[in-house]
Structures are given as C-alpha cells and as structure tokens.
Here is the input.
Amino acid sequence: MVNELHSPVPFVLTEMRPPHALAPRFSPAAPQRCRPPHASRRARRRPLVPPGLGSRSSGRSLQSGRTDAPLRTGAAELLPQADELSTQRSVRELTPRTPSPVGSTGSQAGDPAEALPPVSLRAAQGGARRPGRARLRPVSDVTSGATGPPLALGEARSAVLAGQGPALWPRWCAGTEGVIYRVSMLILSKTAGVFSKPARRKTYEFLRIFNFHPGKPFLHKLVLGIETSCDDTAAAVVDETGNILGEAIHSQTEVHLKTGGIVPSVAQQLHRENIQRIVQEALSSSKVCPSELSAVATTVKPGLALSLGVGLSFSLHLVDQLKKPFIPIHHMEAHALTIRLLNKVDFPFLVLLISGGHCLLALVRGVSDFLLLGKSLDIAPGDMLDKVARRLSLIKHPECSTMSGGKAIEHLAKQGNKLHFDIKPPMQRAKNCDFSFSGLQHVVDRIITQKEKEEGIQKGEILASAAHIAAAVQHTTACHIAKRTHRAILFCKQRRLLPPSNAVLVVSGGVASNFYIRKALEIVTNATECTLLCPPPRLCTDNGIMIAWNGIERLCAGVGVLHNTEGIRYEPKCPLGVDISEEVGEAAIKVPRLKMDI
Here is the structure.
C-alpha cells in the first residue's frame, strides 16, 4: 500500500500508477480502426508497453519504492492522440491482458487491466458485418493454450454468464463504442489498483456494465458521489432531477462492534479493500458508463483523516484519468441538503444536524451559505449514546448484540421507565444554542457504577435496571436537544431570518433516525408553528446519495466545481458556515417550558 495516504498532504497521483497498468491508446475525438487483415505478425505481436515499463525488472515497485526508470503516467500518455492507434495495433492488443502462469514472461499476475474486452455496438445490435471491417479473431484459451473459432456475441455472453469467462475469453469485434467502454472500464480498474492488489474479477461484472447497455444517452447532469468520512464506504450516482440511478454501501458496523468502537486504522484498511467494489456496483446498478459522468463529488471534510484520505485519493486519480470536474464536499453540508432531494424546500430553512461525530444548529441560506447558531462544546450525542451502551455492556444483551450503541439504547429504552432516574438536562442556565453531552455521560456512568454495587455484579455484566437507564438517558438527551432547537427557532424568527409562517426545520444525521428524539422535536415545531422534515432513516446515516446530490446542487449553482485538483486536501476538522453563536447568546432568549409527553 502506498504510504502517502498517511500524510495530510495528498500525493501526486500521476506518479502512483503501477507500471503494469496501462490503458489502450485511443482518442475519443478520432475514428477508431482495427488492424487490417494484411498486417504482419511482427506488428501484431508488438506490445503497447513503452520502453522501460514492459518487464518485471523495470519500472517502479510500489512495495519497495525502488525506481529503475521514471514513471510518467499522465493522461496524455494514457490516452494519446488517434494517430498512435496505427495499423500496427492488432485486435489482440486491445484485449485485456490475462495473468501469465508462474515462470512465464507474459503480463504480470494481478494485472488491474484484467477484465472483459469490448463488443461492438453493431454486433450487439445483431447487425451484419460490413465489408472491409475487422473480422472476429480467435483468442487463445488462457489455461490450455488452445484456440478456437470466432464466437458469436450470444455464445460469448452465455459462456461468461455460465462462469466460463476466465477460461474462455469471448471472440469479439472491436468497434468505436466497444473501445470507449473498454477504456472507461480500464481506467476504473487501474484507479483501484493503486490502493490494493486487485483480485481476479469475473468478466460478467463488466460485461453487464459496459456491453449490455451501450450508447445509452443521458440528457441530465450525472454525478458520482463517494463517501468515506468515517466507517461506511458508500457510492451513488444521482442526476439533476433527483433520480437515484444507482447506489452501493459497505458498512463496517459489525467489525467495529467487536473492537468496542471505531479504530481509524482498521476503518482505513476496510475502505481500501472495498472502495473499488462499491464504486463499480454503484455504476453497474445505475447503468452509467464512467465517461458519461458530469463530475465526481467526494467528502473531503470533516471526518477521520485516514478514512478521508482513501476516498480523496481514489477520486482524484479517477477524475484525472476521466478528465472530469471534481467537487469537494463538506460532510455536514451534504446532510443538510439531503432533504432537497426528496422535498421541495426553499431557502432559507433551519437545520439540526445530530450524529455520532457532530451536533449543530445552522440557518441554511443557500447551497454553500450557512449561519452557525450553535454546536456541541464537547462530544456529539451519538458518541455519548455509544459510550453509555458500551458501559452497560449491551453488546452482551441478547436483543442488542448486533446493534450499534445508539440503536441499542433506543431499543432497550422502550422497555424502561424514563422517570426511574432523575437526570437533569445539561446547560439549563445557558441562554444560547450550544450543546454539551460529556457531563451527561459522566452522570450516567456514576449511576451505573452505583447500581453495580447495589446489585452485586461485576463491571461488564448486564444490570437489571439497564432498560431504565437507557430510557432516562434517551429522554434527557431528547429534552436537551429540543430546548436548544426551540431557542434557535425563536431567535431566527425574532431576527427575521426565517419566514414568520411556514418555516421549516430539517433534522438530519445518524441520531435523527432516533424516533424518540424526532417526537420531542415535533412537539417544538408544533408549538412554534413550523414544519418538521426528516429524511428517511437510510438517508440520515452516512451514504453516497447525499454526497452525489450535494455535488448536483453545487454543479447546478456553479459553486465549488474544480477543474484543477492541484493542492486539494482533506480536512479532518472544519467548521460549517459563519459562526454567529455569540450573537445568539447575547440575545439571551428565554424559552417557554414545554411538556415533553412522549
């Protein structure tokens, strides 16, 4: 693995390309031609590899860091002009290179270019071959060395879908459309090859992506969103009308439950192992070729540094090869704007973002125009609930063993009495919109310690009163969040930052999927004559859809769209918008007491 991912300064991606991962040369602007039948065998065997990069002894070893010859892997060399695709290029040279047996001098094992060759659009449509076009040529069987007659497209597809693809490469016809899909696929495969040793992929995956749906026109803007800010690897393709064309996600929850929390280095490694597969699945389900994307949007702030680095590096390498704009995304901005994917919500509106890593109140005046009214002064509510769940050892509870900490608290709280313990909400005398949850966590920890002594059990065993503790801490958290949000609504209406009627409060983030907290906020919005809007639970947690949609919003507004990615960095800590929390505190708005009958 490349060591530069550990540095906060992104490395130069044009120097990361493995020496054996070479794309076929072609120019999208020029007509593509196959080698004529009369070309010589010598020309047919001529490799595409430039001098110094074709053998195992040359080039740069990514593992050892040795450099025997300079690596130049810019887009100009990956995709040269059409005149380089001369008559010396055979049909065989445009097929994917397959791993050679041990001891052979062919292409290296684990070649990222290992994938399905293209099929021409004319052949896919069942049209007859015109005179003078390149014929289907026999390809040697990878395992046995045998050759066979040309295969029809239907036979090739049947062989691939039957699992015989790696042993019997389809005989194919090289047309313009096939070369384009082949190159797009190769760029994606090569991008992922930088981060981990690529495994052998079944050819039907790319056949389904690039050959089953060729030449499909898209009239809308299309954005690929990539999310790796914490412990979820996610990707999605969304168009400007809000249609979710494809999505994929890999959750690390099961792994981190065993370690008792998120370990950044473990999260980083899991991102590396899954990012290529997740992006491929999102593109496959969307039936969108990478070359048809309008831009690539990726979370670059805030989040875990090691996790952000994986997503940013993958994305920068991808946009560099595809020559697409790059849109850096603020994770909390994406959460705030997700509601506009589902509902027609006009600016301005108030947003409450509550998750495992963040808690803030902000006024949204535009796509990238935020006024920060308040934030957590210590830890986030999701983090606090996770710590309480670990202290209660809920992972050993038969009903909560597979749940995250916050989900376990919500589930167990339904069986307990919220008034069994008298826990006061934090910051009752502070007349601002800031939050605090560390004090609440310490209070609960003392209660748990006391109950362990009373019940005569050791630390790590489940208390008989665990359900009552879960209900009390959830109720106190909901009351604290509701009161600060109530003050924010009153402040915005007093300063005429929100319309006097039909004001909207949007609640998003992982903790927003807690229905008890939603009900508490619904009491507040009913009292202030506001509308409460929440994305569905699956869009409250981290996902690629919100990143792609934020990219669409920025692309349509022309804000933050980069055509030059030089110097782009990830930022583990980054505020959202302009902070006016001191002004809110100076206003000292008194909040009327509401009965939280939930």
